[in-house]
Amino acid sequence: MTADDLDKVLAIADVVHPAYPEERSVFEERLALYPAGCRVAECRGEVIGYGVMHPGKLGVPPPLDSPLGGLPADADCLYLHDIALLPEARGTGLGAAVLHHAHRLAAGEGWRWLALTSTPNARSYWDRVGFTPYRDGGAALEAKLASYGGGMSYMTAPVQA
Question: What are the backbone dihedrals phi and psi of residue 66, each rounded to the nearest 5 degrees, phi first?
Fold first, then answer.
């Protein structure tokens, strides 16, 4: 992903996540802070999906539509901020390719976990690919999830090298 891709990324986010809008500055900051975790999925030269991920702390997801301000020096996981594909791109294997990239990236950094906050509609996908609800976050995690809206799940999966 480059800065030139951000208009397409935001357009895809508007289609895939209309209930969870985020400002352009959120994507700009993630790209600037951790470009290795920002990828686009293309088909015939058209951007049809993206993945945005960055170092994180287990049980401490970032607030929705908020800057990180920096990456945690004591990161212990790769946080999948978003993997989004246009409806016509589903079933092409691109989502699996982005997830494979996440596993390789995390393994290369020495992290043992991937983490994410799942929307209700995506939960069954994350269940199928090996993510499980994280149970050690307590009241602070529950409060943060509530700020996203109802039905959100903070999930983790062990990194597959």
Answer: -135, 145
Number of other CB atoms surrounding residue 155 within 10 Å: 20
Per-residue CA distances from 48 to 12, 87, 132 (Å):
7, 9, 27
Cα–Cα distance measured from residue 88 to residue 72, given in angstroms and rounded to the nearest whole number: 36
Q: Report helix, strand or coil for 92.
A: coil
The answer to whether 58 and 76 are in contact (CB under 8 A) is yes
DSSP secondary-structure letter at 60?
A: B
- Residue 17 and residue 118 in contact, taking contact as beta carbons nearer than 8 Å: no
The separation between CA 131 and the C-alpha centre of its own chain, rounded to angstroms, equals 13
pLDDT tens for residues 65-93?
Answer: 999 999 999 999 999 999 999 998 888 88
Using DSSP's 3-state secondary structure scheme, residue 87 falls into helix
pTM (2 d.p.): 0.94
At 25, is the secondary structure helix, strand, or coil? helix
